[in-house]
User: Fold these one by one.
Assistant:
Number 1:
Amino acid sequence: MPKEIHTRTVALTLNGKPRSLTAAPHWTLQRALRFAAGLTGTKHMCDRGVCGSCTVILDGRAVLSCQTLAVECEGKTVQTVEGIAAEPKWQPLIDAYCRHDAMQCGYCTPGFLVSAKALLDKNPNPTEAECREALAGNICICGTYPRHAEAILDAVREMAKEA
Ligand code: FES
Ligand code: FES
């Protein structure tokens, strides 16, 4: 007979809004985002902390949500790719990804976008090397690597025009 699992309520700020998520104590943040919050943009790929597909921004820092327990996020601020896409400020980044074809199957793309946004939060005018370094933890099986830095640098130029 399996033991009963007692769920917890985790109160956090998710994409700018207060939310309470019901999660089992062993649930990762990635799992809670998908199954308790209904947000499917944060991808589940390796589940081992090596691919970056599950990247979210937790209290201003890019983290791997498959390596973060949901219960650890009580009182914290989480931003997912959906929250970034909802902010008009970041539309130039998304447009640049499309212009540069920085995706093929697209499965890894949300993780790359979140890492790129976390970089630009801290460093709004990065060099190509800094872009590559910020994305070093993101793996793309389709091999789109050269296009990400190009897209980010193009987005920076577009954002500067709009400022
Ligand atoms: S699914 Fe989290 S790092 Fe790969
Ligand atoms: S675009 Fe397919 S895994 Fe990156």
Number 2:
Amino acid sequence: MNSATRLKLFCAVSPGLEALLQQDLSAIAEAKHVRLVLGGCEVQVDPVGVWGVVLRSRLTESARVRIGAFSARTFDELTAGMAKLPWAAWLPRCSTPEVRVSCTKSKLWHSGAVQERVQAQVHARLSDAKQPNSFHPPAARVYVRIDHDAVRVSVDASGELLHRRGERTAVGRAPMRETLAAAVVLAAALPAGAHVWDPFCGSGTMLLEAGRMAGVGVRPREGGYAFELWPNHAPDAYAAWLAADAAVTDAAVTDAALTEAAAAMPTLYGCDHDAKELEGARLNLENAGLLAHTTLRACDFSEMAAEVPAGATIVSNLPYGRRADVGDVFRRFGRLLAKRKDLDVWLVLGHASHADALRIPPKAALNLRNGGLRVGLYHRPAARA
Ligand SMILES: C[S@@+](CC[C@H](N)C(=O)[O-])C[C@H]1O[C@@H](n2cnc3c(N)ncnc32)[C@H](O)[C@@H]1O
């Protein structure tokens, strides 16, 4: 693949976060022509852009590259179209990829039958004449989407879901998905150098995302990404790209007092009354290189409030429990918010009645899902000074 190759990359996101994903991707220099589509966004990239999007996007859950498109109304047309695709460039020889098919309003409607044909084609194209029976277990994923007889074929670029960033080694009792925390931070539109408080920080996911989104450079996760298995992947160029990014980040950190990047970094405040959760947050923020920007306390939220400067932003995911269990916390936190009108407040709540208890606007800015639960993002803007 040469650097002039133009690729279409589809980035999938959790339902409800499509518009924020568009914002997230639009800020990535390598992603061009970001377009909102069902379930996510489509972007144009060159091969380096695949790395840029997969490693920089904070909201994308999975990414896949389009390797071909054609129309088919019969199985013969499907097989002929599949036979022309450049499989050997995208899938490791002798791999048996998982094939996922969706058919909508098309002559070819039976996804199981389509899947069988595609699997047979892929198998035939990737087999090794010298070692015909040497197939590995699934190491890659192929997506076939047939809509109104138009067939689009893509291969997975990300591998394991991207919210598994490998940065949060300590996971608390009710951890928030990293991509969701990133969405909250993006929705809050933190100004450069913001002061950010999570009064119920648990393992520190919100603070971690707020710090990482301000730009601490890319960090490849240990397990890697699906694109690293593509036969057309250029490992040396990838290593050089990572090194160049690290060099830019190091320069920004070294000249901390002087650089714009350092000035843009938020100051983070977190507390949790559970000392074990707080210890997890400390470890996670340390791993992410953010501890120097963070003040953490194992205490009730009310004990940290005085440290948080006027005009700060709260981003937090409150305890979900039944109202009877969390009523006292919500009442006390509601009183604090009523006193601190200077704070811009973004809260993920398990139920609209919690917004009532907190006396903040009860209409969710966004409806989301966290670990199978329906939750809402509620916003109380700061009062104008
Ligand atoms: C839903 S969890 C937050 C999870 C966190 N966002 C994460 O990703 O790990 C709510 C947290 O609030 C903490 N908490 C409950 N009551 C508190 C209080 N009065 N003061 C401080 N923390 C409290 C709990 O210990 C719990 O860790």
